[in-house]
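Input record (one chain):
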Amino acid sequence: MIYRFKVVCFFVLILVAGCSPVTSQYFTSTKYVKSFNTFVVNDSLKLSLKTPADIYYKKDKDKLVKEIKKEGKSLSGVIASGETQVPPYYKIFIMLDPQKKVKAFGPTQMVRDTLLDDHRLVILCRSENAKNLHSYREDCQQIIQSVSIGRDYRKEVASLFSLSERYGNRYYQGLVNIQNYPTKGRNGKWLQLQMAINYASFLAPNDVYDSLLQEFNKGITRASIKQIIKSNAMRDSAKVFRTLVEEVKNKQLVMFNENHFYPQHRMLVSHLLNAFKKSGFDYLALEALAEGQDSLLNAGNPPTTESGFYTKEPHFAQLIRKAQKMGFKFVSYENTDPDKKREYGQAYNLYQKTFAKDESAKVVVLAGLDHILEQQTEDNRKWLGFILNKKYGINPLTISQSHLNRYRKMANPIALIQGRYFKQKPYRSVDWLLLNNLSIQSYIKNYHYLNPYKKQVQISLFLASELNSEHNFKSLIPFRSGLVKPEETIGFELLNKEYLRVIYDGKGNILETEKISHEEIK
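The corresponding structure, as predicted from the sequence alone:
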């Protein structure tokens, strides 16, 4: 009996040893931050390391296990594994407490074995051949030296803000990487949500945008606010536009605000540009424009991915193109002086570029959220609209598109209500509040694209007229852009112009480029 028990135990030990897990329990908690490098981050282990951007990591656990077993490698405890797609070609395995000692055999392999609290962290780099050996070993040495453990393990990891600037017009890649970013804490997740909505809005309408927007807008709507809107809002769209046109006629300064991830806020301002021009408005001041970009636009250059972050949204770019064609002078007024408070710096820049040099100037401003408020907030904060009035003596007409966003579905598609109907701030801190429920999607579609790929892709349609020796599509903002699911069709309303169609995948790879002629737009 004792003999039989020992035999059973012997075979159980062999079975356990032979079936040691290829991946660690920490495999699923490993995240990847793609910037100019790829950072491997595991918050559970308080571990990060920096690797070249061209290493593609395998996130499917089952496929990775099969690949490793197929290679016949006795690796275990893998928390991350990837390989390069361009020279130098090599694979990397990051392991926690591997059952067997991992050794380097010859110059094509490198190993680091170190302690991580109560664990052993092992990094194995392995090349299949001796080509580009110097570059390969240099890469691996830098990876090994980049390991960061403990309290400051995230210190070198690219931030969400730094990520947001690097994707250009590869919106889908930006959306994927922002959503996959390993955020920590409530504030981090809130910032991540807003940045993800921004990228999704560049491709709107789409399911991701709708779901993220729904999550963002969670909150209570007040019956008292609804009642004020029902009783006093102007609901006839034609009347709303007529009222806005009449209101601006005798004003020198009109300030609209916007929520940065609502394309329809730019669409409405674009719709009103003709009326502004007829009323003598000649300046368009955009908070979203980067420093110095107004000069480039005023010289006739097309909007590019360098014009600003929010101006990368196709409807925003189209607002700029339309204003250029109509002869508006652009003004970038964001404060970049660290010695000035933001609002005072903005007011100074805006005034100096317009009214200081032209007393008869008429200016349209498109600002973010609370910047247009004409009254101090409850915490005594003075915003741009307030400062322009009190310090520079210019009383603006202020129209908020954001403060009643949660109630926008009460409009079909727009409604207008005066701020004086409300007792509380910030509603009464503006002249008018606009409920903007315009549809982003046009009901008239004269161009269609069927996605032939087995994955979701980004389609971007660039104006051929903007493509020249100085600007290729990688620096331009598409006229229209969208997300297309596998084997589904997307439609757009296009102008009767020529375009370049570019298809990106979620990794930012260009899958195809093709010219679209007049004949294909029906």
